[in-house]
Amino acid sequence: MRVSRTQAAENRQTVINVASRLFRERGFDGIGLKDLMEGAGLTQGAFYKQFESKEDLAAQASRRALESASQRWSAAIAENPDDPLGAVIAFYLSAGHREEKQDGCPVVSLGSDAARQEAGVKAAFEDGIKAYLEVLGPLLPQTDGEDANARAMVVLSTMVGAMTLSRAVNDPDLAQGFLNTAVEHVREGVRRRRGERQTLRGGRKKASYRTSNKASNMKTRR
Questions:
Q1: Model-level pTM?
Q2: Which of 22, 51, 57, 222 is 20 to 30 A from 111 in CA distance terms?
Q3: Residue 136 contacts by C-beta under 8 Å, 6 or more apart in sequence?
Q4: Does the residue 193 lie in any domain?
Q5: Quick check: is 38 in a domain?
Q6: Nearest Cα to 57, choosing from 8, 102, 23?
Q7: 108 with 94: CB under 8 angstroms?
């Protein structure tokens, strides 16, 4: 039976969506084309009509997974606009996210696998990671001269590392401990920088007042 172009396009998107979830659960090398296509409700024979290779699908699925993850960050922020960073932290460093093997962060579930993949997969991860940083940067308090992107890199590394370690152990207390410690570390860093920024502002106000007062005294003497 001949498949229409519209149906073929829909089938392609279905395969990408299914693969983005199954790859996160089993890894790029943990599932074959037959199981991937069956998961999408299609035959293996239809695969090469849609994709050049499994590597091509891996790149497309990685991009889809990272786009989906970024959208979840945006949704969490939208639900708590008064504390957007807190919303991201609460969502990402949660026990619920730790258990999301198919829908969780692809950087955690596939990051080490991506390092061994072709350029297409790495390009998808690079774009996705940059999108994470673009979301985080504006949420973090900055002091003068501090690179916002560098600070976002520190926070993202902490979050991804904590979630990776939390998933890697059997002890539930240790697993939760990694998440709790990361939450406190990020929050403490935010509190410290807010304090530094307030101190700098206070210093500027005092300096401005002294300058203004000095100028006023000089005018009075004249």
A1: 0.82
A2: 51
A3: 85, 88, 152, 155, 156
A4: yes
A5: no
A6: 23
A7: no
